[in-house]
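Marked as duplicate of an earlier ticket. Keeping the data here for the record.
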Amino acid sequence: PGHKFWAGILNVTSLQPHLDDVRMLGPGAWMFQETSATKDAQRSMGTYLRLKGYILSWGAPVPGRLQGSSKLASAMKGVGGVMTMSDLRVRKMRGAWPPGLWELGRIQDTMIVVNANVQVQAVNMYGYPESGRYPMWRQDNEKLIYFGVERCNLSRPGPKILCGDTNLDTLTSPMVKELL
């Protein structure tokens, strides 16, 4: 009895051009990866989606065009960004992430309030692509999964969703094998 809960995962390769499609998803919780949403884009898309009745929880904004050769500037030359959207109440979970995960727009932790008795924790991840730009992509994606699982294990008991585009073969991932 009670509210039926639907959840979905979408890798949109930039959210802005898909806004009209997104509003047709219906009820539930939708976790997006690769939003490419800068701070300004989060603000404008957030306003639009809230007017359509959705509640949003954004990961860190994807920085605008960064200059220089720092690790952050190099890592952000591609796309990133994660967001959870729902017709249910959502809130960001508190707590610090290890350096390089949150500020790169690669991971977020959200609580979705289904009803007074059920809250679902959703850890949403967007992994690094296999490319010369990310020579440690496999190890960094395993870390994403590790810290996502750790975050779930440290929170209160209840249903969890660990999702995203990790750019890993789930049949060969050591972290995924450990979970199974």
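See parent ticket for discussion. DSSP finds five helices and eight strands in the chain.
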